[in-house]
Structures are given as structure tokens and as C-alpha cells.
Automatic annotation (TrEMBL):
It comes from the Eukaryota. This is IQUB protein. Keywords: Coiled coil. It comes from Crypturellus undulatus. InterPro entries: IQUB, IQUB_helical. Residues 244-382 form the IQ motif and ubiquitin-like domain. One of its GO terms (biological process) is flagellated sperm motility.
Length: 559
């Protein structure tokens, strides 16, 4: 309520004015404005409450008044017809009349017989059309199959040629340990790939023994031995060069690993990288090492690199840094005296070696402590060290390749490698690849397989050569590059007594089988079981294998 005061001469009167708030939005119907006072006046419609419609007593907005009910009803109309005949007093023309005579009566059997004959005709044409389509589909499938087989044949032939070319290149230009294994294997085997193919040791020895006797035979064998020694010496010289090149690459990979930033994967899949003071320090040392290792750079740039190295190592004062600074000063002095480049090679190698030792010191490069194989604390070396009976050195356990059937540590990897190069000259690359493929395939099952990781390279070689005779159990294919080991029963974990050696195509088809008893003959299954018994008898000598075999046997008996 608002109280307003009205004045009329000397009298005052208070009135109570009731204000009603509108419950709707008023429409604007126009108005006018006083030009002098600026007061605005609206039309009455915008200030007046709309008049309420009177109630008629009839419910207008309801369901019944807006719904139409429909009803369908069938009706039969009356159709009255009549026939007019000629009679007295009426003539009806018969010019348009037709005479209808009844035909032959068709029995139900005759009708069904005629329909059956018509159906047979339709089926004949349909079957002809269906047969044509079927033959065309079979012909198209045959064509596609033959094309696929031809492509696979060309693909296999191409892969084989590439494999031979790769082996040839690896023997001609060996870089890794596996390449030198192939090279020594070729030296021992029938052919040695040099400029031309020449018959080598075994064939030559056989020829000498068959054709020569007495002193001539001894002289020929001595000549063969001298030639073999020359070839081995040439291989050794080439190996020294490749070892030096590989060593430099290994050093750069090692330093690059130290300089890598920290990275992790976020929830949205993006990779986040972060540099720490330690990684920045390692990256700085890596760039300096690359600079001082470069050859054929101008004299001024070399001096700048040496001065940068000098400032870096002088941050720490010790015997190693003092020696590096002394060598840097010596090289700068010799360069100022115009000494030849080849006379400075030894000095530069000493600087690189000492600076690499500086980089590998955790005190000067903290990031390297996480990557060094040798722990910085000497007491940690006693926990995992074994003694090599051949070279008489104490080495970490990672330097020993212990087969699953061995009960002692034996010789280290380096001694085994040297002995293989001198005597047997076997190439283990194929068995390493086979074991790697087997472990990758077992990891895909994700059923907690353990036995496959106990098997070593020597065990794989024994199984392939002694148990499976280096050939596929189905097709007798003897190409080891095309052979793989898979599970005999795919529902159980892989083991030497649950495996089969097949080609890659045969292995894919074997793993798709659901019932081995129906897929293979009894004779073949019996032969595979005999090989499994042989493998089980050999590998039960291993304590870990024996315990696993005992557990699997108990589970089989209980089930």
C-alpha cells in the first residue's frame, strides 16, 4: 500500500492506493511524448488489465471434443437384374447373342498333372540358370586362387632371393657378430663367398684325401692350412676395423641415451617430455664429444672446440681433468706450430678416450649412473659375479650363456664365441630368430607362459637338430628360415613336449584346428607323441622343468 497526500486549499486527506502487479507481459500499443515537458504517455491498452471472458459453462479444451471416433462397416447394395425374352408383342434381337458350349471336363488329377509339368519346366530353367551362376562363381574362385598361389610363389621366391642377397652382402661386408658367424660358417662349409665361389675346407679336404697319399697329401693339407690361416687373418683385420666403427656408434648411442629427456604418456595419449639439469648436462657433454671426435675440420674451429672442452673440464679439479687440460694445451701448441694432421691422431685419440672416461664418471655426469652396467659402488660387484673356467676372469652373470640342461656355469660368452670361430664355426642366427619368434607368439597368448623363457639358444638348437631333424613334421621342409615352433595343443602352455616344428603356412593352418584327433591320422599323432616323449626325457633333467612337469602331471591326474 502507498499513502498519497492530496491538498485542497487548507485541507489534507490520506488515501490508500492499492497497486496490482501484472501477471503477464503487457503489449506495447504505442503512445506519445510531450515535446515541452518530455513526459511519455502510453495508450490505455498497455495499462489496462485485459477483460476476462465470461464462463459459458461448456468445457472447450478437453479430449472428447478434439477426438474423432471412426467406425468401419461393410454394406452390400442390392443389384436387381432381369432377363427379357421374346414373346407375343415383343421382339428381342439375337444378333449379338453368343452360344456358349461347355468344354471337356478336367478332373483334379489332370489339373494337378498339368500344374506339375509346368512347375517342372520352371524348375528346369531355374536350375540351368543356377548351375551357370555356380560354375561361373567356381571358375572365378579358381582364377583368384591360382592368381593368389602365383603371387605367393613369386613372393616366396623373391623373399628367398632377398635372403640370399642379404647373406651375400653380410658376408661380403660384415658389421655385426651375427655377420661374422655367417662368415666363419661359410669358411667351414662348402662355399666361401669372396670374389668368386670356390670350394673350401671340407670339400677340399675330402678331395685331397681321395686323390693324394703320402708326402703329397701332407703338402696339400699344409697348403690348405696356410690358405685357411691367411683367410682367417684377413677376416680378423677386417673385423678390427668394423669393431672400431661399431664401438664409436655404440658410444654415441650410449651418450644419446643419457641425453634423452624424461618422457611419459598422459591420459589423453600425448607424450610429454621434460628436460632436467642432469639431461641438459649430458646433452652438453654429448655435443662436445661429437665435436672433438670429428675429423677434417678447420684449424680455428678445432681450437674453439678444444677451448670449450677446457672450460668444461676445469669446473672440476682432479687428476683426470688435469691430464685432459694438459693434453689440450699440448695439441693447441702443436697446431700453432703447424704440425701435420696425421701426427696429431694419437694425441686426439687420447683426448677422446680421457673425455669419454670423464663423461662416464657419475660425479661429473650424474645421468650416466642410471645406465652404467658396472655399479659405482664396488661392494655391489660381489653379489652377481661368476668365474669363467676358460679365461680365468670374474664376470657378471649376464656374460654367461647357460643352457637349460647345464648344471654348471661353464665358459663365458666371449670364450664360447672364440672357440666356435676356431673349431665348430656354427651360425646360431637361425636358432636365435626361431626362439625370438616363439617367445613373441607365446606372449600374444597372455596366459602366463614360463617354460619358453627358460629355453636358451642351445636348447632350441638341440630340439631342432636332434628331436625334429631340422625339418617340418608335415612337409619335411628343411629351410630353417621358414620353420617355426608352435604349440601342438593350443589350449595348453608351450613346452618341449607340447610343440611341433612346421613351416609358417603350416603353422597358421595348424593353429586353426579345433580337434587334432580328427585332423591328423593316428600314425602321424603317434610319431609326434614319440618326439614329445624324447623331449620330456631330455628336459626332465632340469630342476625347474622337472617341477613344472610334475605340477602339470598332477593336474592331469586330478582332472
Amino acid at each position: 500500500l502507498i499513502t498519497s497526500v492530496l491538498t485542497d486549499s487548507d485541507s489534507f486527506q490520506d488515501l490508500a492506493v492499492k497497486i496490482e502487479r501484472p501477471t503477464y507481459r503487457k503489449p506495447f500499443l504505442g503512445g506519445f511524448k510531450h515535446r515541452i515537458t518530455g513526459m511519455e504517455f502510453h495508450n490505455a491498452g498497455s495499462q489496462t488489465v485485459p477483460k476476462k471472458r465470461p464462463d459459458k459453462g461448456i468445457e472447450v479444451f478437453c479430449r472428447e471434443t478434439q477426438t474423432v471416433f471412426e467406425k468401419n462397416k461393410l454394406q452390400q447394395t442390392i443389384n436387381t437384374t432381369s432377363t427379357q425374352m421374346t414373346k407375343i408383342g415383343l421382339y428381342v434381337s439375337n444378333m449379338t447373342d453368343k452360344i456358349i458350349r461347355p468344354g471337356n471336363y478336367v478332373t483334379a488329377d489332370e489339373y494337378h498333372k498339368r500344374r506339375l509339368e509346368a512347375v517342372i519346366v520352371l524348375q528346369t530353367y531355374f536350375r540351368r540358370w543356377h548351375a551357370i551362376n555356380l560354375v561361373q562363381n567356381l571358375r572365378e574362385k579358381k582364377r583368384l586362387r591360382l592368381e593368389w598361389e602365383a603371387q605367393e610363389e613369386v613372393k616366396k621366391k623373391k623373399e628367398k632371393e632377398e635372403k640370399l642377397q642379404s647373406e651375400y652382402r653380410r658376408r661380403q661386408n660384415p658389421k655385426t657378430k651375427e655377420d661374422y658367424e655367417l662368415l666363419y660358417r661359410a669358411l667351414e662349409g662348402k662355399f666361401f663367398l669372396k670374389a668368386v665361389l670356390s670350394i673350401w675346407r671340407q670339400e677340399e679336404t675330402k678331395r685331397i684325401n681321395e686323390n693324394l697319399t703320402g708326402a703329397e697329401r701332407k703338402a696339400a693339407l699344409c697348403g690348405l692350412l696356410d690358405q685357411e690361416a691367411q683367410l682367417i687373418a684377413s677376416i680378423g683385420r677386417y673385423k678390427l676395423d668394423t669393431d672400431e666403427e661399431n664401438r664409436q656408434q655404440a658410444i654415441l648411442r650410449f651418450l644419446g641415451k643419457c641425453a634423452q629427456p624424461k618422457s611419459w604418456k598422459a591420459f589423453d595419449g600425448k607424450i610429454t617430455e621434460m628436460d632436467t639439469p642432469y639431461t641438459l648436462r649430458a646433452r652438453e657433454l654429448l655435443e662436445i664429444y661429437r665435436s672433438i671426435s670429428m675429423n677434417d675440420i678447420p684449424k680455428d674451429e678445432r681450437i674453439d672446440v678444444l677451448l670449450t672442452l677446457r672450460r668444461t673440464v676445469k669446473e672440476h679439479d682432479c687428476k683426470l681433468t688435469q691430464e685432459i687440460v694438459e693434453l689440450i694445451d699440448r695439441e693447441v701448441d702443436l697446431m700453432m706450430r703447424d704440425v701435420k694432421e696425421y701426427n696429431l691422431e694419437g694425441l686426439r685419440k687420447r683426448i677422446c678416450t680421457l673425455f669419454l672416461q670423464y663423461i662416464k664418471t657419475p660425479k661429473f655426469n650424474p645421468e650416466v649412473a642410471k645406465i652404467l652396467k658396472v655399479p659405482p659402488h664396488p661392494l655391489q660387484l660381489y653379489k652377481n659375479v661368476n668365474f669363467c673356467q676358460s679365461c680365468k676372469n670374474y664376470l657378471p652373470s649376464s656374460e654367461f650363456a647357460v643352457p637349460a640342461s647345464s648344471r654348471t656355469i661353464g665358459r663365458c660368452r666371449l670364450c664360447c664365441k672364440i672357440d666356435n670361430e676356431a673349431r665348430k664355426r656354427e651360425a646360431f642366427l637361425k636358432y636365435r630368430l626361431m626362439l625370438k619368434n616363439l617367445r613373441e607368439s607365446e606372449a600374444d597368448y597372455q596366459d602366463g607362459a614360463k617354460i619358453v623363457y627358460l629355453i636358451q639358444q642351445q636348447d632350441m638348437q638341440y630340439m631342432v637338430e636332434k628331436i625334429w631333424d631340422c625339418q617340418s613334421a608335415l612337409s619335411a621342409c628343411d629351410d630353417l628360415y621358414d620353420l617355426v615352433m608352435v604349440r601342438w595343443d593350443k589350449h595348453h602352455e608351450w613346452s618341449p613336449w607340447n610343440t611341433i616344428l612346421l613351416t609358417k603356412d603350416e603353422a597358421d593352418a595348424h593353429l586353426k584346428l579345433c580337434n587334432l584327433q580328427e585332423a591328423y591320422e593316428a600314425v602321424f599323432i603317434h610319431r609326434i607323441n614319440r618326439k614329445h616323449i624324447h623331449a620330456k626325457k631330455y628336459f626332465t633333467q632340469i630342476p625347474e622343468m622337472a617341477s613344472i612337469l610334475h605340477k602339470s602331471g598332477d593336474q592331469t591326474n586330478t582332472s
